Amino acid sequence: MESRLLARTNKITNTSGLSPTHLQANLLILPSAHAKSFHDLCRRNPVSCPLLATTPPGSPHTLNPPQTIHSPDFDIRTDCPAYRIYKHGKCIAQRRDILDLWTDTDDYVGFLIGCSFSFEDALGRAGLKPRHQETGAVVPMYRTNLPLLPAGVFTGATCIVSMRPYRAEDVERVRSVTRRFLATHGEPVAWGWEGMRELGIEDIGKPDFGEEPVIREGEVPVFWGCGVTPQVAVESAGDKIDGLVFAHEPGNMLITDLTD
Asked: What is the value of pTM for the model shown?
């Protein structure tokens, strides 16, 4: 797919709006010793971590299910626009590829997690184009007080949400459009200023990831589950994870061949 080639050659970053009708995916790659625990985490938290596909241990070129990506030259180490590297729960670097960090002898497993960018085309067709697409910004994302159900070493984390502002009278239409996209977070988990406070978000103008939102008069924040949540789970696991962990840079997704 052209978008993945652009990512591989470092010609794109923010993937919102690219390859309409195709599912975009968040990414987490970790040592295979922790793969079962992370798989269990996804199954226990399907709104925040809807699992789309995995790689076999040690193989950056293959996905299960195989129809996720058809390209024979696919490489999970290059085909995201940007990556984060974690060690002992801390992000220690950002990279455009991780070719030299996952070699042929390394035993890693990759997980693709559904991304809310996947339903943005449907919102646009309904006359509800997300604001960050209008402004060319990265969608704002926030830490919440919603606990993530634990699994193995992944304990003590809370959920991340992404936010798109809409007029209060449009919220029900927004919910209706996104509800069927269960593989990519589905409908909003909260909306409105009271909903924001219930999530434990204190300042809408200061997202933890992404860029500051533009909210106009008469609009309210609308929040969805977010696939950056696994990165927070890695932070909470800390030094319980031996070795490096790799993830996508928020807003820089892997575009799959699956359709919405």
From this structure: 0.93
